[in-house]
Every structure is written in C-alpha cells, then in structure tokens.
Write a structure and sequence with these properties.
mainly alpha; about 0% strand; single chain
Length: about 70
C-alpha cells in the first residue's frame, strides 16, 4: 500500500473516523497526521463533541527549542 492510498479529504476522513470510533471495544488506535493548517485539530475536536463524554482529546506538539539533532 502506498501513502497516497491513505490520503483523504476532510469530509471523507471525518466520516471514516466517525465510523471507526463508533466500533465496539476493543477499538482501533487511530493516527491522524498531516501538514500544518489542514484541519487536524478541528476534525478531532469536532469528533470529540460528537462522541461527548466517551471522547478523550489529547495533543502533543514538538517544542522546537527542545529538539536537538
């Protein structure tokens, strides 16, 4: 499978994640990646609102000041 097969537009991604997150436990781990400013956080917060108390939203951003090569 190539990485292009995983590229979805916002509505398609939202619908797929909504379906997967609605599956009974044990569920799947979902990883959402993408470039800056494409709507990742917006999508996850929208899903968190949809799932209510069942949802837990956590985010981690890399601090460039702490990143060393």
């Amino acid at each position: 499978m190539t990485s292009r097969e995983y590229r979805l537009r916002y509505p398609e991604c939202r619908d797929l994640l909504t379906k997967r997150l609605g599956e009974p436990a044990p569920g799947r781990i979902q990883l959402l990646t993408g470039p800056r400013q494409v709507g990742k956080t917006t999508l996850l917060l929208e899903l968190a609102d949809l799932f209510g108390e069942q949802a837990i939203y956590g985010a981690r951003t890399r601090n460039p000041e702490n990143h060393r090569l």
